[in-house]
Amino acid sequence: MDCPRTQPYLASAPVAIKECAHQPAIDALRTALNAALQGKAEVIEHVLACLLARGHLLFDDLPGLGKTTLAKALAHAVGGRFARLQCTPDLLPTDVTGFSIYNQHTRQFEFLEGPVFSDVLLVDEINRATPRTQSALFEAMAERQVTIDGKTHPLTDTFFVIATQNPVDSHGAYPLPEAQLDRFAMKLRIGYPDRESELRMLAMHVGDDVASTRFKPVITPEQLRQLQQHVAAVAVSRAVQEYLIDLAHATRQHPEISLGLSPRGLLTWQRVAQACAHLQGRDFVIPDDVQDVALPVLEVRLVGTFESARHLVQQIIESVRVPVLDVLI
Amino acid sequence: MMPGPQSDRALRGATRLLALSATVSLELARHDHAHWPLVGWGSTLLTLGVVVLVGSWLQRQDPDRGRTQGIAALSLGMLGLAPFVTAALLRRWQLAGESPEIVQLVALRNGMLSLAAFPLWPGLLRLSCVLSLLVTLGALMFVLSWPGQVAVAGYGVVGIWWLMAANWERMQGRFAVHPQRKLPLAVCASSLTLVGVMGAIAAVMVGGAATTGAFDGWFYGSGGTRGTDPFAARGLGDGERLVAARQRAASFGAVESELFLESEMPSLYDLFNDLYGEPVTKNRQVQRAIGLTSPPPSSPEQRLGESHRTGSAFSTVRRGPALRPPHRQDEPDSRALLHLTGRVPLHLRLETLDAFDGRVWTRARPSPPPSPTVHLTIEQVADKPWLAIHHPTTSAALCRPEPHLLKILRMKTNRIPTPAHPVGAHIDRVDQLDFYGWTEDDVLWMPVREHLPPLLVIHLHSRSVDAEKLMLAANAPAVAGQRYLSLPDTPHRARIAALAREWARAAPPGYPQVAAVISQLRNGHYLLDPAATAPTDCPDTAAWFLLESRRGPDYLFATSAVLLIRALGYPARACTGLYARPARYDRLARQTPVLPEDVHWWAEVCLDGHTWITVEPTPGYEVLPPYFTWRETMGRVLGRLLRWAHRHPEMCCLIILAGVLVGAFRRELADGVYTGVWQLARFRSTRTRVLATVWLLEQRARLAGHARPPHATLIRWYSPLARAALGQRPLALEQFLAEAAHCLYAPPTAAEQQRTSVASDAACRQTVRLLTVHRLRRIRARFTPLDR
Question: Partner of B567 for a Cys bridge, out of A197, B340, B426, B500, CB 3.0 to 4.6 A?
């Protein structure tokens, strides 16, 4: 998403806007994910928005809430390869990217691809890896290519990383630096399910072997790529862009925020708002979309001495005027 | 939105610049008044040095420690008290002193500098700015020369820059500081203050030093108080007693100028000769030409008699004013006869004359003893002896008494020029009743003296006349005496009477007839021309003026007016004295000088037997308007309204009913207007219709008290609002909101192609029909949309 060589973010994309041609695919995806994670429709919407916006996702939540389940369901639903990385302090960068090995039969070095060469990569407990390994992963996320021994290996277009971290257990952890956190599009919290959902979940798993649950793919990577291009072409009017910039200024001048929104973050926000608009069946962005995705997008990249991110983002939204009829002036 | 550290530094720098420019203005203003300027500049530099040193030391300390705060407070207190201590010491040792206002201003300046130098909290910076404003206003009061004015203007410029720097983000209009408040109050307040300051500076620049008089009274010692101070810069003429001051000739110090040479003091008849020319005397009239010097008095009775004979005839046949070299125009004060403080235009009566024989006015001897005369007593008012003038009855047309102050400079007379209806007079320390007298031609005089002491100050209270009440009053039969009704026995007497009757034909009897005659004289083709005097052999100057020449000096106007009014049957007399013109009002000294050319003739008429009303027949001269306090003015306006309501009861009921209806149904009326405007949009494009519906919805929500906060989107606000108002979310509203979002945020090329007008029109109409003001107002509780 934040690769400078991708398509421009404006409405002048080469792809013609088709009205809802891929809507069934989106609906199928949504259904599959909701089946995997009960009672968290809003989280699923945000996950879908992140996916369509070509962003990477960070889950920051307590253990056992369904992060891995969701990531696996998503990976399977999208089709393609799913890889999983469990981060420990002794994980090496080559364990992430892959390495060259000498094949005695062919007497040549051949490259064994690492987990980043999958379509969906689940990185568990990313804050446990050493900074060296973290930076290898971030480089792959940012550049969508890895360079080993002077050779460049590109990753798939729809490479999607879901990283998780546990806010509770911080012994032996390497917290992610702020500059790197900016590479994630969103930070989501799943939270505990409500009572009904928990009842349903328990009922579902009686007599079932959890390990045998597999999800069928509902969308091909090619379709996903087209969807992402489609999302990039969603129209953003000047008024909404000015609204985004006003919000960014508000974050930069808030007394409790020491590091406000960067231009890269602003681009991310616009792209995720485009995805949100597309998910609701519109081909233009309205300020509601911007407000809907404000908390996940801002939470991952704002640094400061605030206690509650939700409260802070609410304050910021309430301090900026939404453009309504003054759009015409 | 609190500023970050960078803008805090900028604010601090701007505040210090503001404080410095205020200091410069004050120092330049002080320089204009100081006896030893070096002392002032030296003390200022010393103060600046101390402030800078203490400030830089304090800034290195921790602002939250009690010790730092204590030291800051102590330095502030000491710097604030230092000017008072210094002033007291300097006065003690009889060195140069400064007026109390300047001492207070210096103390304020010290406070401002200390707060700007060591602001422990940001709020102190703003307090420093407020103090700088006060200091500059004070400097405005005292600044005399152009460097000071330039410095004050410079302060204004710095002030504008400071305001812009402090409020930059707000001025950009992007941020609602608080979503509930519509107006940024801080910006409004500071803008208004700045506008006020700039207005004051502009007024001083344009109006000159006179406008600074408006700032009197802001500080202790500015005058009008009961205190005295040897170094006072102001207080002239307003204190307990008029004290000498250095800079104005209107004061009563001993100065060497031609003002006060004895030989220059003219009497009233000297002034007549100067202004109107010498009277043309016929041989027969020689005996009646009275000398203009008063003979030495021998006994009181004889003195009284002689003062009747002396100077009590005025010939209306005169040569006209001779050409003389013009006086120096730059100092009218040096020729002034007296100075008048109080409302103008004012007729000051000096003599009245009642007998006219066609050419000469004389005062006839009194015949039978006069009806109950005016009665004088001395009363003590606030430890001052006041002469109370009791008239037998007071007409209802007279207003409450108002004060005037006369400062007589150069009149050789023992008559006190008074307004028409005096009720009280006060000369300092004069508490003997026999100093005052009341002549039978209704003039206050001092019988014990030949003429008034030089440089006399007289306080007068008098009543003005309300012409409206006069119009309505009934008049009593004339008991003022036959002499006031006599007409000269001339051939044209009948023609004058006929003219009077013709002019007064349309008016009801009483004052309206008098007013009709006077208005004909003023507006009806009669020109004031001091050079057009009557021919020397004219037997009846009034007839010549009224019927032939139609132009003449003011005494012919007065003469004609008296004769015309007498012809109608009302007692009238000619009156002479001084006329204080509004055009000569001096703003700086707040008084009107009366010059020798302000000698004037007018008429007086008596309608109810005892009150003589001033009437002014000469165009260009006005009678003093009635004096009303604020409460009385409002009462009159109310009375007029009530009278009108009484005359038109049905209109009144209609207006009240309309007002009540509008007040009760203001929301519905406003909604009707808005809906009408919305209907107009039906003839425009689909997009305009949808946007007009958005506008109407916003207005309705505002009228119902549920205005959309600036940060809420349309969907987030109106969907829950509709559900709260109607109990369910109407489909039409959802469609309409989607349309609105499309019109507002979708790129324009897609809009026209994709939306069908029929569906969107239906959605708009349905929304307008469903969400009325009445339904929205039914939501009683304070509405907040549900959080997502």
Answer: B500
Task: Give the integer Cα–Cα distance in Å for B518 and B521.
Answer: 5
Strands A98-103 and A108-113: antiparallel
Decide if B405 contacts B424 (C-beta within 8 A).
no
From CA B154, how far away is CA B112, in angstroms rounded?
Answer: 18
Distance of CA B230 to the CA centre of its chain: 31
pLDDT averaged over consecutive 10-residue blocks of chain A (329 residues)?
Answer: 30 37 84 87 92 91 84 82 88 88 87 87 88 88 85 87 82 78 89 89 78 72 88 92 94 89 93 94 92 93 84 92 76
Q: DSSP letter string over B480-493?
A: S-GGGT-----TTH
pLDDT at position B580 is 92
Residue B228 contacts residue B165 (beta carbons within 8 Å): no
Q: How far apart are CA A29 and CA A38, in angstroms?
A: 14
Q: How far apart are CA B617 and CA B630, in angstroms?
A: 30
Best residue in B175, B699, B713 for a mutation probing chain A (most A CBs within 10 Å): B713
B186: tokens are 């801080």
Beta carbons of A291 and B698 less than 8 Å apart: no
How many whole angstroms separate alpha carbon A312 and alpha carbon A307? 8
Q: Is the ipTM of this complex over 0.95?
A: no
C-alpha neighbours within 13 Å on the C-beta side of residue A88: 4
pTM of the prediction? Answer: 0.56
Q: Which of A284, A321, A327 lies nearest to residue B174, judging by beta carbons?
A: A321
Dihedral-angle region of residue B602 (phi above 0 means left; psi in -120 to 50 means alpha; beta otherwise): beta
Q: Beta-carbon neighbour count of residue B243 at 10 Å?
A: 15
Distance CA B568, CA B590 (A): 42
Q: Shortest CA distance to B740 belongs to which of B783, B779, B708, B774?
A: B708
- Residue position matching structure tokens 């900028």: B10
Would you call B745 and A255 a contact, using CB atoms and an 8 Å cutoff? no
Q: Does A328 touch chain B (CB under 8 A)?
A: yes
* Cβ-based neighbour number of residue B340 at 10 Å: 25
Q: Sign of dihedral through CA atoms B722, B725, B731, B735?
A: negative
A185-238 residue pLDDT tens: 999 988 888 899 889 888 888 886 655 556 678 888 888 888 999 999 999 999
**Token representation of residue B680:** 């107009």
Residue numbers of chain B with a pLDDT score lower than 70: 1-8, 63, 95-96, 122, 165-188, 201, 203-264, 281-312, 322-334, 364-372, 474-481, 750-756, 781-788
Is A327 in CB contact (< 8 Å) with chain B?
yes
d(CA B237, CA B252): 10
Helix (H, G, I), strand (E, B) or coil at A159: coil
Specify which residues B592 forms β-bridges with: B340
Tokens coding B17: 């610049």
Of A249, A250, A284, nearest to B745 by CB-CB distance is A284
Question: How far is residue A67's CA from residue A166's CA, in Å, rounded to a whole number?
Answer: 11
Under 8 Å between Cβ of B226 and B383: no
Q: Are B710 and A328 in contact (CB < 8 Å)?
A: no
B-chain residue closest to A289, CA distance: B713
Using a CB-CB distance cutoff of 8 angstroms, which residues of chain A are in contact with residue B712?
A: 322
State how far the Cα of B427 lies from the Cα of B378, in Å rounded to an integer. 11
Q: What is the predicted pLDDT for the residue at B333?
A: 60
